[in-house]
Amino acid sequence: MDQRNDSPQQRLTLLELLLVWEGRIFRSRVCELFGIGLPRASQWIKEIRDLNPTWMQWDSKSRSYFATPDFYRRYAKASQADISESLSRYLSMVGLPYASAMENGDSVAWSATPSITAPKPKIFASLGNAIRQGKSVEIEYMSMSEPAPHRRTIFPHSLVLAGHRWHVRAFSETHQEFRDYALGRIIEVKPLARLADRARFDDPDWNTKVKVRLVAHPELSPAQARVIQAEYFNGTASRVETCRAALVPYFIQGIHAAMDTQTQHPPEYLIAVENAREVSKWLFNR
To answer: d(Cα 110, Cα 127) in Å, to the nearest integer?
Structure first.
């Protein structure tokens, strides 16, 4: 068993995620997810029952503990950000299979698209180790401006999943600035013994926080706007997200929000950035 799961608080957190997003807990599911035996799974479930006796109700037919209304009342006033974070942690824990036409299985949640940009494990691991050790690396890289493979020394500080693509945020020794490098365009990573000359705390765009105010596109009818507000803003008129300046372009692209409502119209754009002028200076073309 993963030692990180070997504390009561960690086990409670994991089982609570399972209860929140699947609505029930049963022994074989716990065994499947965490690689433990039935007796250990029973102990985990007993721990969460004893600590929170009103959270679950036993169903003898399915031999499962189902979440009670009392349990879900805890989440009635949770913020959209907290709910999104909880769902992300759940999906990270259980995985999300791609719903291909040929696949059969018991899963009820699927990804509509396959992952076609997963990074090479060795490249991902090498960059991660360099970041943890504060070391520089030499990469062999291809870009749209320089399609031929070329080498450059970078000082990486963060791995970022932006949409469906992984990037590494790093200081470029050649360009003397912080840049993003798509992991799918990195051919090779050569670890260097040299310590990185620049770190995360030296990256101004990484450390600058930008507030992005989202609203329903102003060209939508009032009834249509209410649909978007219910879907994305938890029924409120707008939503404000705080984003690192370096990641603002990926965020805007990912949610497909209009920056210019005079040229970007529904139905292609249903959400708009209300403070577009303030946000625009952080876009790629600034």
So the answer is: 30
Task: Determine the Cα–Cα distance for residues 76 and 83; give it in Å rounded to an integer.
Answer: 10
Q: Are 163 and 188 a contacting pair, CB within 8 Å? A: no
Nearest residue to 248 (alpha-carbon basis) of 274, 280, 277: 280
The architecture (CATH level 2) of 121-201 comes to: Roll (2.30)
CA nearest to 15, candidates 57, 67, 68, 54: 67
Q: How far apart are CA 80 and CA 58, in angstroms?
A: 30
Banded pLDDT at 209 (limits 50, 70, 90):
very high
Top pLDDT among 110 and 60 is at 60
The pTM of the full predicted model, rounded to 2 decimals, is 0.77
Specify the CATH number of the domain 3-94.
1.10.10
Tokens of 121: 């494990």
> Which element (helix H / strand E) includes 210?
strand 209-216
